[in-house]
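In pairs, describe these two lines:
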Amino acid sequence: MYLYVMTDRELVAFLQGQNAKLISTIESLSQTVEELTEELAALKKAILEKDKDAEKLKRLVNVNLPKKTEKRKETPSVSENKPPAPTPKQRGNNGAKRKVYDNIEELVEDVLPSDASFDEKTAIYLFHRDVIRYEYIPPRLIKHIYRCKKYRMGDDFFEGKAPIAPFLNSNFDSSLLAHLIQQRYVYGLPVERIMKYLNEMGIDIPKATTHGLIEKSAELLDRLMSVLKNTILEDSYIHFDETYHTILGGDKGSRKGYFWSAFSHQNNLIQFIYENGSRSKTVFTDYLPEDYKGAVQTDGYSSYKVLEGWDYPKAIRLGCVQHCKRKFIEIQEQPKAQEIIDLYNKFYSIRKKKPKEKWKEASLKIYKELEKKLREIERDPEILPNHILGKAAAYCLNELESIYNIITSTEYDLDNNIIERPMRYISISRRNSLFCGSNAGALRTATLYSLAISCRLNEVNTFSYFKDVIQHLAESPGMTNEQMRNLLPDRWAQ
């Protein structure tokens, strides 16, 4: 390998050439800096003259400003002794952080200065700031025309097919049906109020048509009810409850009809049962098979006591601490009532403060003390059986075994609130819609509430759910049970 070494004269010549290039580059950069300085000075002058927000822009171009500007003090006239009016406070956000909604549709619109002398072609773009306004667009009913074209290729004919309508001889899409169900059975609006709302949006659907669409939707969704029942009964821990609604019909014009409900603790699925409004024990026993193996949590209604007998040898009944405590809350002014309330509250305190492995031991101590206090009330000669305190103690003594079943395990809830909360939807309907028009209407109500509330319990968008499931059921009348199982809210969400 040959290495060339420069002579002193060659090295000096090389360095002089590099120096000349550097001097030329520095002169070129100096000229560019002077030009940019002149342009910047002109831009400063234009900004200060035209832009109302000069303070922010001056900071942008590194102009040193005083930290605070002095406010001009106005001296009041001699004739007026009133103090000067306070300067209006500039509108601001007080440092609060606004919630940002990132999961909605976005529309970006460029806003140019409105000054008459502004010319976008000659102006130099500096930066932009985003101002957000959340805009509401009222619902629309769109007449979607599917133009199904037909073609011929040789001897063969081809024709486009429109999506299947949920109902025969009906032009309404599953999206409208989903909207009606959501408004009626999730947000508790009566049909007349839904129609009025749609009318204000320019959508005029007759009352008979609206009722008919909801009725047909319930008939279609009723195919899922047997699958829903089997899924709930597969759970080894379920809850039961019942409540009433006013039903039209009969000799007196209206009557109380009862809705029962079964809730799967594992799948967060609920089913409402309506059997001609009956509150008879047979409604419960017809739903729950005799070979059911697991725990059923209920209140102290007598029909549920069948779980404690020989009819259900593999099942255990769990009571509700809240129902027991409520009996004494209602008579809180009575002596000894507060002692019982405090003991029931200690069950909750144990589960809140102690580790799970110590729940049973600590709860059994409270249980023994609770039983002792209730027996004292029962044996007190001054408290008659018909006295309100005696009745409350008798109810709680009857529920002692079911409370014992709860505290000896760490897997069960202390109360039945997990099903009591969804039952409020029936209460809202009772207040807003006043009544169900018939037994058939109440049965439809049970079907639609079962799916709508199961959606809420599984945090499923009810509109998207009903729109999709109704379309699936309409397109596939021969679905298997496993396919329909996948349409229940807990699996549909996945």
